[in-house]
Specification:
single chain, Quinone Oxidoreductase, Chain A, domain 1, Rossmann fold, six-stranded parallel sheet, GroES-like_sf, oxidoreductase activity
Length: 331
């Protein structure tokens, strides 16, 4: 099979497309013919040798995928060859076929169309993270005001869309007009440029001086303290990630003065520690996807040979919405 191969730690341009043996599923595993593999920040960290674990060389990056089951391990009975599925794996999805633990694979309805199957390949990590953040960590209530930083990116757009679905007033903050337009397309009530000097003043005007109830921050960096100062009484500041590269040091007196909370969001650990709660969230999200209530924005599709280009676009924060690798695309 064709696969994007990493043979040494480095930058995305070191990746190559090579032929690898077709992997055979062991007990508790399935093999999936990949329809789409999402491009996520941890994929780049894995290639650079900066992730929490380091696979043996050679390996293919890619942790999130959709496709069709092509082989089953001996003890897997709840899936069948030909099932359309979405799933996650530690690595390996930038390939024509991927192995995954059966417990990390979810069957989609048999009538799932090809375009929906492709959308599903960019769905689990971003929408899973954002739904867990808003529902479980922030305990968001209808009518509350949600500020989404980095609202043009994958998790940011998911938070915008889910916030509207959950009855929130959504203020989407993004650095370019194109990203703000994307947030508008997913239902944002207001859009705002967080790179402007008067960012905090704009938020005061939009909230009548009250501040936001929930701030969703996958960006970190210099903007974090300004955003935290814009959280109102009893508000929740969700720490989702650090796309800007810097881990902010936030003054704790701000939390005291506003009776607010700084709340960490680690979806991967939630999946591991609370599998039943995550499974319920996933069922709800996939139901909304199938019904057309949620519609991920895929802004670019790449063949296997375009994996380095896709990762560079992600690292450069040029991407809007999601980027996916589609092995069937030719270049």
């Amino acid at each position: 099979m064709k696969a994007v191969v990493c043979e040494a730690w480095g930058t995305p341009d070191t990746l190559q497309v090579k032929d690898l043996p077709l992997p055979e599923p062991g007990p508790g595993q399935v093999r999936v013919r990949v329809r789409a593999a999402a491009v996520n920040f941890p994929d780049a960290l894995l290639v650079a040798g900066k992730y929490q674990f380091k696979p043996d060389f050679p390996f293919s990056p890619g942790a999130e995928f959709s496709g069709t089951v092509s082989a089953l391990g001996s003890d897997v009975s709840f899936l069948a060859i030909g099932d359309k599925v979405v799933g996650t794996a530690a690595f390996g999805a930038y390939a024509e076929e991927v192995l995954a633990d059966a417990g990390q694979v979810v069957a989609l309805p048999a009538d799932t169309a090809d375009d929906e199957l492709e959308l599903a390949g960019s769905f689990l990590l971003t929408y899973g993270t954002s739904y867990h953040a808003l529902k479980d960590r922030a305990e968001a209530q209808p009518g509350e005001t949600l500020l989404v930083l980095g609202a043009g990116g994958g998790v940011g757009l998911a938070a915008v869309e889910l916030g509207k679905q959950m009855g929130l007033r959504v203020i989407a903050a993004a650095s370019t007009e194109a990203k703000r337009d994307a947030a508008r397309s997913r239902g944002a009530d207001e859009v705002i440029d967080y790179t402007r000097d008067d960012f905090r003043e704009q938020l005061k005007i939009l909230t009548g001086g009250r501040g936001v109830d929930i701030a969703y921050d996958p960006v970190g960096g210099d903007i974090a303290e300004t955003a935290l100062r814009s959280v109102g009484w009893g508000g929740r500041y969700l720490v989702v990630g650090f796309a800007a590269g810097g881990i902010p040091k936030l003054p704790s007196n701000l939390l005291l003065l506003k009776g607010s909370a700084l709340v960490g969001v680690f979806w991967g650990e939630f999946v591991r520690r609370e599998p039943e709660a995550n499974a319920a969230n996933t069922r709800q999200l996939l139901g909304w996807l199938h019904d057309g209530v949620l519609r991920p924005l895929i802004s670019a599709r790449y063949p296997l040979s375009g994996a380095a280009e896709a990762l560079d676009a992600l690292l450069g924060r040029d991407a809007i919405g999601k980027l996916v690798i589609v092995p069937s695309l030719a270049r």
